[in-house]
Amino acid sequence: MNIRPARVGDAPAIYELIKTFADRKLMIRRSMGEIYESIREFVVAVDDANRVVGCVALHVFWEDLAELKCLAVAEELHGRGVGRKLLDACWAAARELEIASVFTLTYSVGFFERCGYRQIDKAELPHKIWNECVRCPLFPSCTEVALIRTHGAATEATTAHAALELVPLGA
Ligand SMILES: CC(C)(COP(=O)(O)OP(=O)(O)OC[C@H]1O[C@@H](n2cnc3c(N)ncnc32)[C@H](O)[C@@H]1OP(=O)(O)O)[C@@H](O)C(=O)NCCC(=O)NCCS
What we know:
171 residues; alpha+beta; Aminopeptidase; seven-stranded mixed β-sheet; 6 helices; 7 strands; Amino-acid acetyltransferase
């Protein structure tokens, strides 16, 4: 199993992987266009046959906040540590960028808690995150849970929250 930055050639496999779970309403569907545009945010897990078996994207919001999106692992490999490895790679990338906090909105709460994330009230997150939510068919009755992992005590999500309050919606 190899964890590496995604390449444009991985986009169709990423699309199919996400679609598998989006069809079951476990995550948000992504178009091929969205995947290509954000391909540099993606990390993939590739098996020995060079098949993409996992993906995740790290989207930077502000100087101290990024979001984990599009996390999916091929069903036949669930429970073998692939998801954790993808999160670890994103956490390392966030640390490299000097971003202190990484959050996610998910139904897979237990998994993220096992990987060091803690639940927070969605209201603690910056308003800017709702730019994407309002385009989701499940809005506003979505039951996704917000979780966050923060490096160090001095940089809580509320710091990012305060900064992002200055950014108008739609920016
Ligand atoms: C959520 C998902 C990415 C987890 O990937 P995975 O490769 O199966 O997870 P891992 O094997 O790395 O598990 C890491 C830890 O989390 C635990 N875990 C995994 N899924 C869990 C769950 N649903 N509930 C509680 N704990 C879970 C594992 O037992 C493991 O714990 P351990 O290291 O203490 O033994 C995978 O189930 C998936 O693709 N689900 C469908 C898409 C989805 O829900 N994406 C979430 C973001 S929208």
